[in-house]
Design a protein that fits this description.
This protein is mainly alpha-helical and about 200 residues long. Helices cover about 80% and strands about 0% of the residues. It comes from Chryseobacterium formosus.
Length: about 200
């Protein structure tokens, strides 16, 4: 009952909006379509449920896991920045860095992680926990998981509606945006990492 007493629609909506902005599944549509063309069928349910589970689990044990393996949040975010950087390079330059050929591999990696439940999303869940009650953050995660599922499920329809030329342009545009995000994520966390070591 205590859990339900902590329920707040305002906190749920705020958590949803914050995570929605960080996940940016709409902006990731060109990546999803590109991965579908590259790997084949994407298991929308498997990918979205896995991403949701990762986010909820990380909400409760994220800090403990990172501390246990001796990794701080900033280092974790920098690692995520490198992954996003590589995906962006593939989109912009049209090169293939990920050589995986197994079709089902695209459902979990890189869609569930790190595209949906990436370093930015996971660190955001930890930040939200400092301000909101757990039940409201979980509701926000579930709502985002449902939305991600709907977008992934309609990837074929989106692919049919998009021409090859417009898809190529969108991929390069969003590739540049992803590149900028990865650089921002890297510089912000690297600066914080350096500051922590200097203070130490």
């Amino acid at each position: 009952m205590e859990v339900f007493n902590s329920f707040s629609l305002k906190e749920v909506i705020t958590s949803f909006m914050v995570l929605f902005a960080v996940i940016d599944i709409i902006g990731s549509v060109p990546i999803v379509v590109s991965l579908q063309q590259k790997f084949g069928q994407i298991e929308a349910g498997r990918a979205s449920i896995t991403a949701g589970i990762i986010m909820i689990v990380f909400l409760f044990v994220g800090n403990k896991i990172l501390k246990f393996i001796g990794v701080d949040v900033n280092s974790f975010a920098i690692a995520g920045a490198f992954v996003i950087f590589i995906i962006a390079l593939e989109m912009i330059l049209g090169i293939e860095i990920n050589k995986t050929t197994e079709a089902k591999s695209a459902s979990i990696v890189p869609i569930a992680f790190p595209l949906v439940a990436g370093a930015g999303t996971l660190t955001t869940t930890l930040s939200l926990r400092a301000e909101f009650h757990d039940i409201n953050i979980i509701c926000g995660i579930i709502l985002n998981t449902i939305f991600v599922y709907l977008v992934l499920k309609s990837a074929k329809w989106i692919e049919k509606k998009m021409g090859e030329a417009s898809l190529a342009i969108l991929q390069k545009v969003f590739g540049i945006i992803l590149l900028a995000i990865s650089i921002k994520l890297f510089t912000a966390n690297f600066a914080q990492l350096v500051q922590n070591y200097i203070n130490f």
